[in-house]
């Protein structure tokens, strides 16, 4: 029995020692954590560092404790370091702590540690290709764990790619892969703020040729034919590189429009087709833009652009007039609409072989210019100049008389036009 009680006594002592020790560690942990937090608030950074070191000895090495070291305690001391030896020692410490966080369970904490380590390499180390490569490696690992990184991390990541490309370590395709990765979630074309502008500015500094950017996105979009995100990034990259006339831009714009048809995207496609002299496709997209919009001013401008293309590029003058008439129906007080109508009429001079019929279109154009000036007095100077040019093409008195008319009489213009006007003679 004596031996049995002796064993119990020994076990009790061991338990009591462990319990007291555990309690002591917990108490010291709490004490030193409170101290370093308070010292840091008071900007007593050296004392905060010493208290944090003690907390590091007594506390569990949680992500929170380690992160306090990398984000609060060490940065203040590094900034105040008076010599290179102390500076290097402190920066080495901060990178070692990042490595401790990275080894801990939890993907989010590791992703953040990789990202912040990359940022701090760029912040604290000399700017050369070895350090850029280390930082780039950190960003690669960070994005592999979590694609949703902050804008500062994204810009730093892209910047290291551009720097390493300049050193011959990375290729243009690596920069494009990075740009595709960091452009943002959703539709980056509509994202705003300095960070977006900065990313595009960094990308532009890479000076990647339009042929390379175009080939990259042609290949990508051929594999991801319905991927609106890839399409939006393609548009942004091509615009930033000054390559919006290249084929990949139109393909990307069509993918975006198909995924989310909007009046603005239809208009964008129309403009692209106009640049490529694909005027019928442009008219089709403009008509689509009209249908997708509830804005009468937007619709009117689209109708007038349709009229110009139909009159000048295709041509289909009758359809052009119909587009102008639809614009006038949207706003009868639009002087610009009558300006376009006048141009449509003036461009139909070869509608017939009849000499008087040919020249009668200039009378109709004059009517339209006069109406434009009546509606909008601000157009008076322009319309007077236009009418002065038209007068030079009026039939002379002799020609008018041959056809049995005289100045001031009513005249019906034939061909497809079938509109009444007033006979005018060239003076």
Summarize the structure.
The chain has helices spanning 2-41, 45-58, 63-80, 84-103, 107-124, 129-145, 151-166, 172-182, 194-204, 210-223, 228-240, 247-259, 263-275, 279-292, 296-312, 317-330, 335-346, 355-375, 380-391, 397-402; strands spanning 410-413, 419-422.
Blueprint of the fold:
Blueprint: H1 2-41, H2 45-58, H3 63-80, H4 84-103, H5 107-124, H6 129-145, H7 151-166, H8 172-182, H9 194-204, H10 210-223, H11 228-240, H12 247-259, H13 263-275, H14 279-292, H15 296-312, H16 317-330, H17 335-346, H18 355-375, H19 380-391, H20 397-402, E1 410-413, E2 419-422
Antiparallel strand pairs: 1-2
Helix pairs in contact: 1-2, 2-3, 3-4, 4-5, 5-6, 5-7, 6-7, 7-8, 7-9, 10-11, 10-12, 11-12, 12-13, 13-14, 14-15, 15-16, 15-17, 16-17, 17-18, 18-19
Description:
With about 425 residues, the chain is mostly helical. It has 20 helices and 2 strands. The protein is elongated. Helix 18 (about 355-375) runs antiparallel to helix 19. Among the domains are: about 25-125; about 350-425, no CATH class. A two-stranded antiparallel ribbon has the order 1-2. A hairpin with a 5-residue loop joins strand 1 (about 410-415) and strand 2 (about 420).
Helix count equals 20
- For this structure, the quaternary state is single chain
Percent in helix: over 70%
Strand order of the largest sheet: 1-2
Our estimate of the beta-strand percent is: under 5%
Instruction: Estimate the global geometry from the Cα principal axes.
Output: elongated
Short key terms for the protein model shown above:
2% strand; 74% helix; 427 residues; 20 helices; 2 strands; single chain; mainly alpha; two-stranded antiparallel sheet
